[in-house]
Specification:
By secondary structure, this protein is of the alpha/beta class. The chain has three domains: 204 residues, Alpha-Beta Complex (Lambda Exonuclease, Chain A), CATH 3.90.320.10; 36 residues; 45 residues, no CATH class. It has eight helices and ten strands. Strands 1, 2, 3, 4, 5, 6 and 7 form a seven-stranded mixed sheet that branches. Strands 8-9-10 form a three-stranded antiparallel sheet, with helices on one face. Strand 5, helix 5 and strand 6 form a beta-alpha-beta unit. Helix 2 packs across helix 5.
Length: 298
Amino acid sequence: MITELERQARMSCIGSSDAAAVLGLSPYQNQYSVWAEKRGMTEPFRGNEATDLGEQLEDSLVQWSLTQAAIAGVEHDVRLLHPEYPFLAANLDARGQLPEGRFCSIEAKTAGLTGPLSDEWGEEWTDQIPMHYSVQCHFQMMCGGPDYPFALVPALLGGRGRCIFKVERNEETIRLMLPKLLEFYQKNVVGGVAPVNVPCPPEIAKRMRRQPNKIVTVSDGLLEAWEHAKLEAKIATDAADEAKGLVLAALGDAECGETADGRKVTYYETSRKSYVVAECSYRTLRLAGTGTSKRKAK
């Protein structure tokens, strides 16, 4: 469980959960996100349903991993500073005691509980986990040094249950990561320079601490590009809606249609259970089949 004091300590460092974003490999954050947070420009992230579940299940997953990997000793909530660059700091859910004074980092994860499960999760006891988690593990091993030969990732996955994965230390990965992390910290975090051509994610924009009466100059080109993109999106949306309507018109009162090349289009009724929304029924237009469209690109 992350305390408020730990949150504040993380503000001055690049952490293991920041690394993938800095490297452009995170599906949740980018360099702008990390920069704005480290510069104190945003309100703190207070968590959501997915992160709350992860924190609540963390300890039980760590304990389960110890039995799976036959590890006797464990230390929870460990913070590791890079031996040369102490502003690179890894916060481990736990670390397991290995023979000869070595350790393994343990990073508990939950996925597919509040949304779809990524197909990046592979076979147990392999390193087939989402890329941003692999980066997180290597950042931890980088900060811990050669005494951390691997990381364990116990995970509770939607539709699969508890699984365990093992990420072996890769020195080449660490060698490639380090200079990019150092450059970002010195130039963007310490220097205060915003990342170039990196968009501000909507979630960060919502948490940004706005300065009253502050006015900045915005490039005409940026606004024109935005207006053009909105127009293109509207044209595409309108075209898709019209094409869908024509398909529905072709179906008439039927629930299913077939094409000459063997594909099917269906408009069956779907029922939604009453969870966070009222129970209801609706129809979804779906295209199925292995045939190839005969329409050629111009």
